[in-house]
Amino acid sequence: MSSRLRKVEHIVIFDMNGEMVAGKKEEPFWFKDQKEYYFGDKKITESNYNSKSRKVRVSKNQLELLKRKINKMMEEPFCWVDVEENEQWLDINFRGGSTISYMGNDRAKFFQKVLGIEERR
Q1: Is the pLDDT of residue 91 over 80?
Q2: Please, are residues 49 and 30 in contact by the beta-carbon 8 Å criterion?
Q3: What span, in angstroms and rounded, lies between the C-alpha atoms of 12 and 66?
Q4: Long-range pairs for 36-43: beta carbons < 8 A, 24 or more residues apart
Q5: Among 59, 6, 68, which residue's Cα sits nearest to residue 33?
Q6: What pLDDT score was predicted for residue 35?
């Protein structure tokens, strides 16, 4: 068992219309970010960020914040998998437990604009 402090980050990106995801009048693109801090196997604290609670849609600054967070995470080895064979859902898993989840209608745009890579199928 390792006795060091580590951070596990989970980012969920929503890019879908519909009342369940975006609400009746809201922009469909928003994200949640959860950071969990562990000492060994014991969780000591967590923090949450929700871009939806700040404004009706993701502003340019929030999109840049999201890109910075993801670029930092992309330095680690990762793999992506389709969730439940649904083309709208995608999970990206990093060594160490961090994840990025995408639920949206345009995966190619997500890969290009947010991750900065081309999707390979």
Answers
A1: yes
A2: no
A3: 10
A4: 36/7, 36/8, 36/9, 36/10, 37/5, 37/6, 37/7, 37/8, 38/5, 38/6, 38/7, 38/8, 39/3, 39/4, 39/5, 40/1, 40/2, 40/3, 40/4, 41/1
A5: 68
A6: 93
